[in-house]
Amino acid sequence: MIAIRSVQALVVAGVALSWAGTAVAQDAPRWSDIDCAQSRLSAPPGLQCKATQNYAGGDVSTGSAGGTFRRFLASGRMNGAGVFYYLAEATSLGASVMEGASLVKDIRSEMKDGNMIHEFSPMGNRGGADYMTFMTGAGNSCVGIRRYGPSQGDGYRWILYGVSCDPRGRTITDAQIDGFIAGASYRGS
Known about the structure:
Radius of gyration: 15 Å
Shape: globular
Helix content: 10-25%
Strand content: 35-45%
Structural class: alpha+beta
Number of helices: 3
């Protein structure tokens, strides 16, 4: 079974380096615990939330030097599944968040046993999000998602990612995938 602390530690440690064309730090993003009601990431109740400060930097994917960004994370357990949602947001005009890599590469880089993940499904789209199902090396049935916000600059105003892994031996259902996709959204103007 995936330990949620391992998922949280990996996400917080790796998120600043990989997903969403993360900004090259002119300011170093620092993660802090926050009340989930303060997050731009609207997620199901019962999860724990973290956020970075608004920080300046350039976007790795485009090489641009400018703009401000913020990141949000919600993680915990829902109906026995270990879950996390991650939101990357451009917070200044002209700044944009870029897709960093393929969804498969993003999932592999963020999971504890990323090199042991297998049985990726073809990418599909449900409820306005790209998604893929996969199996962990420990035998957990999982889904990974990516949803894009409105276009801004050379990319997007925000990108939302998430992973949900059921306990070993329990297969993730279409209804669970739909619920996971619908479970989080961007809260903002």
